[in-house]
Design goal:
This protein is an alpha+beta fold and 744 residues long. Among the domains are: 76 residues, Alpha-Beta Plaits, CATH 3.30.70; 63 residues, Calcium-transporting ATPase, cytoplasmic transduction domain A; 130 residues, Rossmann fold; 120 residues, Calcium-transporting ATPase, cytoplasmic domain N (3-Layer(aba) Sandwich), CATH 3.40.1110.10. The protein is 52% helix and 18% strand. The chain has a seven-stranded mixed sheet with strand order 14-26-25-24-15-22-23, with helices on both faces. Strand 18 and strand 19 form a beta hairpin. Helix 4 runs antiparallel to helix 9 and helix 15 packs parallel to helix 29. The longest helix is centred in the first third of the chain and has 36 residues. The chain is elongated and about 115 Å long. The protein starts with a helix and ends in a 7-residue tail after the last helix.
Length: 744
């Protein structure tokens, strides 16, 4: 047996990851374990895929290795995702509670430290309030930093723990032994407020991140929810209910009206209309009968049928969509993880500078080398405190999200904001995105003879369509009701498969349906109605006729109309130099008509969900930054694959969950505004990171005493604390500027 055959692959949920550095730590810890061939961490889905040799290592040993590094695994492959979501939910609630309590204690520390530092016992009051902030509510920073250090790694927690811990210890020494500094002619400053404020602000940033992360899997949950839990199995002894997990290939199953189809298969008895919009995106249900395929997750609208299971479990089309959405989501870089990557380099650099500072002072510092060296070292660590670094991204995101909401643009994460300004290709779904997403009667022409008795004939047509199960019937009924038609009693009603409707009123037979039905009863169109029908068919509209046993009275055109702003939106995008494509599951004739109306030059018809994603992959392979805009379940895979995903607010919940941006009004003209907001927000994030670091680039050398040999200047730790606070103020103020910009 080859080594490849001995290997086993397992995918398990990971607990405790809070940054890109954490993901790389998990990967590194597992990667060095004996018997593990490879470990690939998917930060987006909080999972790790491990390829290992069962004879050398077992999942329980993976878990022990990660627990030693501060993380954990859920070994239950069946219910692991649900358990992970419960743990994440509990963690979010606990983090929120800790942040609120820490904020309550920090506020008086800041007030005393800034305005009442000379009051009696001020230092002791601040000490009493700061201890629980750091070592009760903020203890996880210190625990995680210690665990990272044990494995020779550092992340944001390491920087927070070091800067706040050393500032606290220095303040503690100055509180109980102030005479040490007094004897050297120096004032013993304390930095309790700096320590507490840093903890609270970083907790706020983590809370925002946890909130976004808790929603990551909601799209997958809703996709899974499309599959029923139980099915009706047909056996020789009768019908019995079984769980979907027990369905086998070849089983004969019953699907009633209104139920979701459980697995992929082929109908062998019965007829119905099936809503396949989750696959095709098209609003019109598809007629199904013996010999035709049905797919898991689609909805049986009216009537019941029996079918044989052909694909079950992970082999169904729905299961493949779920898997591909997970893979596409996980293939992207985590949202705004630049800070963590910088922190991994920043921490050892700051530590090195702090130690180097102390060493240089001890060698060349003169009479007060120890005291001034210690002060300089602590000043370096205080001014390097990552408060502004932690605020740089979340504050810009918060303001950007608020600005978007004001303009009907809901932004889910920073990833969409980061990529939006780079978009040079926009891919549009047709139904519900360019069009209204619902069939309506656009035109209804009555013959000259029908005009004499229009009210009565309208009532007959509405009465017949009200009794129809055909998905287009609702469009006709809505149109006639709007025009004040009144229904009548019909008899001998019949639904003619593949043709339309037949009924009798006052002994006269009436028909509503396609020309095939009319021809079967020897009915022909007059010249006016014939020309009208030909024109509407050229416009890719569905046409139905209405007549009696003697003549055809009317022709109605039904279509999913293009939205009023779609053509203008396409023109605006092309003016910005953005290429526009339309992908649709509809036929080529309809696709061409809609593309022409919208002014779209590039389009593809009869495209399946996986084909849309593949099309976007090909564009990305050509170095294009792609935005996908859609509204249906069938678009979810393509949305997940795109660099920027935008959903229509009136679309499916799953499309909205997968998308990074949602347009509340479902107006395509909002797309250019969303891309503009993206540009502003990402620029603000970059500016914030600049402000977060410029103080360190200038302040750290000053704190180390670089000017002391020149003019005797040594930065006071209190000034360093103020500079750190000022950097935070600069970041917040810069983010707030975004609030006053006007999106045009």
């Amino acid at each position: 047996m080859s080594a490849t055959q001995k290997l086993q692959t397992i995918t398990l949920p990971v607990l405790g990851m809070s940054c890109a550095g954490c993901a790389s730590s998990v990967q590194a810890v597992l990667g060095v374990q004996q018997g593990i061939e490879s470990a690939e961490v998917n930060y987006a889905t909080q999972q790790v895929k491990v390829i290992f040799e069962p004879g050398k290592i077992q999942p329980q040993q993976f878990q022990l290795a990660l627990q030693s590094a501060g993380y954990d695994l859920i070994l239950d492959e069946v219910n692991g995702k649900e358990q992970q979501e419960m743990v994440q939910g509990s963690h979010y609630k606990a983090l929120k509670k800790r942040m609120v309590l820490a904020s309550v204690l920090t506020l008086p520390v800041v007030v005393i430290g800034m305005f009442f530092m000379d009051m009696p016992y001020a230092n002791y009051y601040m000490l009493a309030l700061t201890v629980p902030v750091l070592f009760v509510f903020g203890k996880n920073f210190f625990i995680n930093a210690f665990r990272q250090a044990r494995h020779g790694r550092a992340n944001m927690d390491s920087l927070v723990a070091l800067s706040t811990g050393i500032a606290f210890l220095f303040s503690l020494f100055n509180t109980f032994y102030p005479e040490f500094w007094h004897s050297k002619g120096l004032h013993p400053h304390v930095y309790y407020e700096a320590s507490a404020v840093v903890i609270v602000f970083i907790m706020l940033g983590k809370l925002l991140e946890e909130n976004a992360k808790s929603n990551t899997s909601s799209a997958i949950k809703k996709l899974i929810g499309l599959q029923p839990k139980t099915v009706m199995l047909i056996t020789e002894s009768g019908e019995r209910e079984i769980t979907i997990a027990d369905v086998q290939v070849g089983d004969r199953l019953l699907v009633r009206s209104g139920e979701r189809i459980p697995v992929d298969g082929e109908i062998d008895e019965g007829q119905s209309y099936v809503d396949e919009s989750m696959l095709s995106g098209e609003p019109v249900a598809v007629a199904k009968g013996p010999g035709q395929k049905v797919f898991s997750g689609t909805i049986n609208q009216k009537g019941s049928f029996k079918f044989r299971a052909e694909k079950v479990g992970g082999a169904t089309l729905l299961a493949r969509i779920i898997q591909q959405v997970q893979e596409a989501q996980g293939s992207k870089a985590p949202v705004q993880k630049l800070v963590d990557k910088i922190a991994a380099i920043f921490v050892p650099v700051v530590l090195f500078i702090a130690v180097l500072t102390l060493g240089i002072w001890l060698l060349f510092g003169g009479e007060y080398k120890l005291s001034q060296g210690l002060l300089a070292m602590v000043t370096v660590l205080v001014i390097a405190c990552p408060c502004a670094l932690g605020l740089a991204t979340p504050t810009a995101i918060m303001v950007g999200i608020g600005k978007g909401a004001e303009n009907g643009i809901l932004i889910k994460d920073a990833e969409a904001l980061e990529s939006g300004h780079q978009v040079n290709v926009v891919v549009l779904d047709k139904t519900g995105t360019i069009t209204q997403g619902k069939p309506v009667v656009t035109d209804l022409l009555w013959s000259e003879n029908a005009q004499k008795n229009l009210s009565y004939l309208s009532g007959i047509l509405m009465s017949m369509e009200q009794r129809s199960e055909h998905p287009l019937a609702e469009a006709v009924v809505s149109y006639l009701k709007y025009n004040n038609s009144e229904s009548l009693n019909v008899s001998d009603f019949e639904s003619v498969t593949g043709g339309g409707l037949a009924a009798s009123i006052d002994g006269i037979s009436y028909y509503a349906g396609n020309m095939k039905l009319m021809s079967a009863h020897n009915l022909k169109l007059c010249a006016e109605l014939s020309a009208f029908m030909e024109q509407k068919q050229e416009e890719a509209k569905t046409v139905i006729c209405f007549g009696s046993e003697k003549e055809i009275f009317a022709v109605a055109a039904i279509a999913d109309e293009i939205k009023s702003g779609s053509a203008a939106a396409v023109a605006a995008l092309e003016k910005q130099g953005v290429e526009v494509y339309m992908l649709t599951g509809d036929n080529a004739f309809t696709a061409a008509a809609i593309a022409k109306q919208a002014g779209i030059k590039n389009y593809k018809a009869e495209v399946l969900p996986e084909d849309k994603a593949a099309f976007i992959k090909n564009l990305q392979a050509g170095k294009k930054t792609v935005a996908m805009i859609g509204d249906g379940i069938n678009d979810s895979l393509a949305l997940a694959q795109a660099d920027v995903s935008i959903a229509m607010g009136k679309g499916s919940d799953i499309a909205i969950d997968v998308a990074g941006i949602t347009l509340i009004s479902s107006d395509l003209q909002q797309v250019s505004k969303a891309l503009q907001l993206s540009k502003w927000t990402v620029n603000t994030i970059r500016q914030n990171l600049f402000w977060a670091f410029i103080y360190n680039l200038i302040g750290i050398p000053l704190a180390a005493g670089i000017l002391y040999p020149v003019n005797g200047f040594l930065l006071n730790p209190m000034i360093a604390g103020a500079a750190m606070a000022l950097s935070s103020v600069s970041v917040v103020s810069n983010s707030l500027r975004l609030k006053w910009k006007k999106i045009s």
